[in-house]
Amino acid sequence: xxxxxxxxxxxxxxxxxxxxxxxxxxxxxxxxxxxxxxxxxxxxxxxxxxxxxxxxxxxxxxxxxxxxxxxxxxxxxxxxxxxxxxxxxxxxxxxxxxxxxxxxxxxxxxxxxxxxxxxxxxxxxxxxxxxxxxxxxxxxxxxxxxx
Length: 147
What we know:
26% of the residues lie in helices and 32% in strands. By secondary structure, it is an alpha+beta fold. It has a domain of 99 residues: Conserved Hypothetical Protein Mth637, Chain: A (2-Layer Sandwich), CATH 3.30.1200. The strands form two sheets. Strands 4, 5, 6, 7, 8 and 9 form a six-stranded mixed β-sheet that branches. The protein is elongated and about 65 Å long. About 4% of the residues have low confidence.
């Protein structure tokens, strides 16, 4: 028995000269437009987006040690928030969660720190809620900037 290989199939030939064809089918490549559509769909359009589980993810640029708690700006990098607590022993993180829960009118237990416990760039997860959506969270944060 020997193996004969060609571009489209692999052929096994035995002593009896019987050929068994095993075709190999390669997956078709996606067009560039399809790839762009998929990547645009996955890319969040701002600092506030939905994660895989359907929770709301907020990218925060924390500024601890400020005089007051305030939302300073919303940009592509994240939501700038001043925190009235020092960045020591997680005090600023707990104050950030308390402040966000007061802005969004939800329980503190519905908000958790996902990434950045020791960094100024943080990701906050807001648990699934029927009353909260990306648009309502964005509007509440924007209204906090103006006040």
